[in-house]
Amino acid sequence: MKKFRRFIFIFVLATVLPVFGQVSEYAVKAAYLLNFVWFVNWPEKVYDDEDGAIEIGILGDDPFGDTLDNMAKGKVINGHSIIIRRFENFDEGQAEKLRKCHLLFICYSEKNSLPGILRILKGAPVLTVSEIEKFPLLGGMILFDQEGQRITLAINPKAAQKAKLEISSKLLQVSKIFRAE
Q1: Would you list the DSSP string of 124-157?
Q2: Strand, coil or helix: what is 79?
Q3: Distance between CA atoms of residues 109 and 74, nearest Å
Q4: What are the sequence ranges of the domains in the chain?
Q5: Residue 8: left if φ>0, alpha if ψ -120 to 50, beta else—which one?
Q6: What CATH number labels 2-177?
Q7: What pLDDT is recorded for position 4?
Q8: Residue 80: which of 53, 118, 45, 43 has the closest Cα?
């Protein structure tokens, strides 16, 4: 219940405060990224060891600056610390490192590389998140979208299932669900 209240708090921040200009768009998105970890179940063998860190990757021109690092500093989620890794741009030689991320935010700057990125992540238990248009349609899992000044989420649960990830019904309830036609 505590996790759900935390997510609702972030959801309220995303829907109300940006209207008043009190919180930057990327501060809200950074908070979402950290909170997604509470609402996704990964297969048991995704950590290097029992106390292994949760790796959040940022691929491309990082829009978060130090906001995400500051929010993650000292945080422990389900007994796991959080590490933020940055990848300047997509290179197939990074495939192994990208596949080690638990969550990968794919920046807009990587739009043209998206098919290659999703191809090398295929089957890996990596939660993919982006703000690239039609991200769920292209095989991504969570899209940060916008309605007016509100940040909304669109989720492709099928893509998550293919990666052996289980997205909580609580997260699905506050999101638009993408379904292939």
Answers
A1: S--EEEE-STTTTTTT-SEEEEEETTEEEEEE-H
A2: coil
A3: 29
A4: 2-177
A5: alpha
A6: 3.40.50
A7: 54
A8: 53
Q: What is the pLDDT of residue 71?
A: 96
Cα separation, 162 vs 156, in Å, equals 10
From residue 126, alpha-carbon distances to 5, 19, 99, 149 in Å are: 25, 32, 7, 29
- Across the chain, which has 181 residues, the per-10-residue mean pLDDT values are 54 46 86 95 71 91 96 90 95 95 97 97 97 96 93 96 96 88 52
Q: What does the pLDDT read at residue 23?
A: 76
Q: Using CA atoms, how far apart are residues 67 and 70, in angstroms rounded to an integer?
A: 5
Give the distance from CA 165 to its chain's centroid.
12
In terms of phi and psi (left: phi > 0; alpha: psi -120 to 50; beta: otherwise), the region of 56 is beta
Amino acid at 107: C
Cα–Cα distance measured from residue 137 to residue 82, given in angstroms and rounded to the nearest whole number: 29
Q: Which residue has the tokens 């998550």?
A: 160
